[in-house]
Amino acid sequence: MILFEKFGQHQPLNRQRDRYAREGVDLSLSTLADQVGACTVALSPLHDLIASHVLAAERLHGDDTPVPVLARGKCATGRAWVYVRDDRPFGGPDPPAALFRYSRNRSGDHPVEHLRSYAGILQADAFAGYNRLYEPARSPGPVTEAACFGHARRKFYELADIAAGKRRSRHAPPVSPLALEAVKRIDALFDIERGINGETAERRRAVRRERSAPLLADLEDWMRTERAGLSRHAPVARAMDYMLKRWDGFARFLDDGRICLSNNAAERAIRPLALGRRSWLFAGSDRGGLRAIAMYTLIGTAKLNDVDPQAWLADVLGRIAGTPQSRLDELLPWNWAPEQRLDLAA
């Protein structure tokens, strides 16, 4: 309960301590922190199995978000990274999982280290720190870049949002007809994707070559034509440049049915941490950050597999010490059978 409340419901330990005190249960903050640390260590073998499963994927979604960390006299800005394996959009049989990592900064050295043995497809934003992963000479091979239409669309949408435009200051740029047209053209591609979600990679590729390819070619021609008449300082020009400079990455989905149009899988996985940050405000230390990302990996993976995280944690903590290492995979969320659950009411 303590673990799930802290990392699944965003309730800091001091709030849990106060709530238990009101119910007549006296628990010190250090006792709660020790329990979190001990449970994280006990569950680390499952975290390692999930990490191996994620990094064996053909395609990953990647993203990151700031994590304030208490430091000497101030809060430093750490970083939480997430890599999501989710093969369901192209009919893959393997279960989904989310792997979180922690660092004290946003250096590109971190994703390079996280994915040092990976050579599949990475769907991510245009963060320059990923660029070394895409180099042809990289060992064990270059990672294939797949750009996110969701990020590109967002840049146009912000310039085409009429409702938001009414609330803008008089110094804000006006609503852009070109941005509105770009949004409509990108939405047409998403409409096709909704109809083939869950189909095999081969089927998705065939439909995209038939229906999406002409729309994407028209989008590129239209965008390059309109961009030629714009100042480089125009907001809509910057939105166009974001796509045009990375066009190969955006067009890659036409030839590979495993690729999604957006990086929403990673954004969904990291959203609970971003929301929880408003509640717990900062991590107390690097050790606290490492504990947090371990628990976010476990809880996030349970949620992706439609497993109740609190019930699963309760069961696993009661059984993991007596489970041989060769059978630890039986405790993973996607192998968790209903009959194995603890009687929580008892």
Topology:
Elements: H1 2-7, H2 13-22, H3 29-55, E1 59-71, E2 74-85, E3 97-103, H4 109-114, E4 121-123, E5 144-146, H5 149-160, H6 162-165, H7 177-196, H8 201-227, H9 235-244, H10 247-251, H11 264-280, H12 286-304, H13 309-319
Parallel strand pairs: 1-4, 4-5
Antiparallel strand pairs: 1-2, 2-3
Helix pairs in contact: 3-12, 5-7, 5-9, 7-8, 8-9, 12-13
Question: What does this 3D model show about the protein?
Answer:
The structure is a single chain. The protein has 346 residues and is an alpha/beta fold. The protein has 2 domains: 221 residues, no CATH class; 107 residues, no CATH class. It is 50% helix and 11% strand. The protein contains 13 helices and 5 strands. A 5-stranded mixed beta sheet has the order 3-2-1-4-5. Helix 5 runs antiparallel to helix 7. The chain is globular and about 70 Å long. 32% of the residues are buried. The mean pLDDT is 92.
Keywords:
5 strands, 13 helices, 2 domains, alpha/beta
CA-atom Rg in angstroms: 23 Å
The largest pleated sheet is described as:
5 strands, mixed
Counted by DSSP, the helix tally is 13
Uncertain ranges? none
Q: How far apart, in Å, are the first and last alpha carbons?
A: 15 Å
On the 0 to 100 scale, the average pLDDT is 92
Percentage of residues in helical conformation: 40-55%
For the largest beta sheet, what order do the strands appear in spatially? 3-2-1-4-5
| Count of separate structural domains | 2
Beta-strand residue percentage: 5-15%
- Count all strands and give the number: 5
Q: In terms of structural class, how would the helical and strand content be classed?
A: alpha/beta
General shape: globular
Order of helices and strands: HHHEEEHEEHHHHHHHHH
